Amino acid sequence: MGVEEEFVLADAVTREAALVAEAVVEAAGRLAGDGHVVGEMALAQLETVSGVCSDARQLRTEVMRLRRCAARAARDSGCLLVACGTAPLGDPGPPPILDKPRYHAIAARFGTLVDQQCANACHVHVGVPDLEEAIQVVNHLRPWMPLLLALTANSPFCGGRDTGHASWRAMLWGRWPTAGPPPYLHSVDHYEQVVAALVDSGAAVDPAMLYWFVRPSRHVPTVEVRVADVLPDTEDTVAYALLVRAMVAAALTDLREGRPALPVEDTVLRAATWRAARDGMSGQALTLPLPGPPRNIPVWHLAEALMGHVQGHLRTAGDFDTVRRWLSRLRRHGTGAARQRAVYVRTERLEDVVDALAVAGPAHQGAGQVGCTVPS
Is the pLDDT of residue 373 over 80? Predict the structure, then answer.
């Protein structure tokens, strides 16, 4: 498995989005190693890219290392690295955008859709080498995507106001024509036909621009789950990634034992996604992943159903306690969105919300002691 995390860069004085990603990415790359910190379209945004990890300890070490490297580089440029799905203060767009031909092509085709495009997600890759199996795993996972969004919602504020949603990032990202739930895919041929049609229509500039919540990766042999907001801290990220890995393992078991995926309607999945983006874990959820007609139940009940579905795989990997503790923390303290609002209620300052989400960098020490050395 591997994890990609996107972050906001915020000015250390004003806490507003800071358009300095190019300098920060260059500095962070020297600390973390080539390819481990990259730029995104918005100049107030960067992404960390983990190496391939096989267990929780390795993943935790890697996520922490990359966060520290990026936070140190941000600090050296007068910024904070902020683990939030949106920029709570300031305007990270309209362009300029990162100076890459592909991003300029996207901007030319889609116009003002690139505005406010500092939308920061957490992507989890889980190895599934066979493309046919990967496509069927996507079918099994797609009904669970609204629940995963509800669990990870971490973007209630954007541009200085409360959006009324737990995940405003999901709403911003949903404007793109290829974003949202994937279609139910019948085969590799069907998948390639859908991809080709989206590119031919102009809705995507290339096959990599399929912004589905879950998809077969185009560049590595994985299933990639892309529905989550970036999470507030390392432990959240690790537990979430372990849950996703267990879900992929459960889907592979169902597939190999002949249990078909539920063909949930796209429009119903979109409605459930909006509800998750608005309410996070505080509301109701449709029972789309469960047999029988859809009905509303408390989101926590659906989360317990998911744990029941994957607990054998979590226990086999030694990850059950980590994921259970994470869900218990969410139940006690709320999602990232709920915690952000709690800070604002207490202080009435969005600057304090930004500070609460800022990733801690290493102390001023020698390069060999800061916890962000280039991996061998």
Answer: no
Q: What is the pLDDT of residues 73-119, one digit of tens each?
A: 999 999 999 999 999 999 887 677 888 899 889 989 999 888 877 89
Which two structure tokens, joined as six digits, stand for 362?
Answer: 């290493």
* Residue 244 · residue 237 · CB < 8 Å: no
155 neighbors 337 (Cβ within 8 angstroms): yes
Beta carbons of 165 and 277 less than 8 angstroms apart: yes
CB 284 within 8 A of CB 296: yes
Element holding 121 (H helix, E strand): strand 121-127
State phi, psi for 368 to the nearest 5 degrees. Answer: -80, 0
Find, among 171, 165, 156, the residue nearest to 116 by Cα.
171
Q: What CA–CA distance (Å, rounded) separates 135 from 2?
A: 19
**Cis (ω within 30 of 0) for the bond into 94?**
yes
Q: Which of 9, 69, 96, 15 is nearest to 45 (CA)?
A: 9
CB distance 5 to 237 below 8 Å: yes
Whole-number Å distance between alpha carbons of 333 and 341: 11
Residue 370 identity: V
Q: In angstroms, rounded to a whole number, what is the distance separating the alpha carbons of residues 197 and 204?
A: 9
Residues 62/23, Cβ–Cβ less than 8 Å: no
Closest CA to 334 of 202, 232, 265, 206: 232
Spatial contact of 142 and 214, defined as CB atoms under 8 Å apart: yes
- The percentage of residues in the chain with a pLDDT greater than 90, rounded to a whole number, is 88
Three-state SS for 201?
helix
Q: Is the pTM of this model over 0.90?
A: yes
Residue 376: band (very low, low, confident or very high) from pLDDT cuts 50, 70, 90: very low
Pick the range with the lowest mean pLDDT from 147-151, 253-257, 316-320, 372-376.
372-376
How far does Cα 57 stand from its chain's mean position?
20
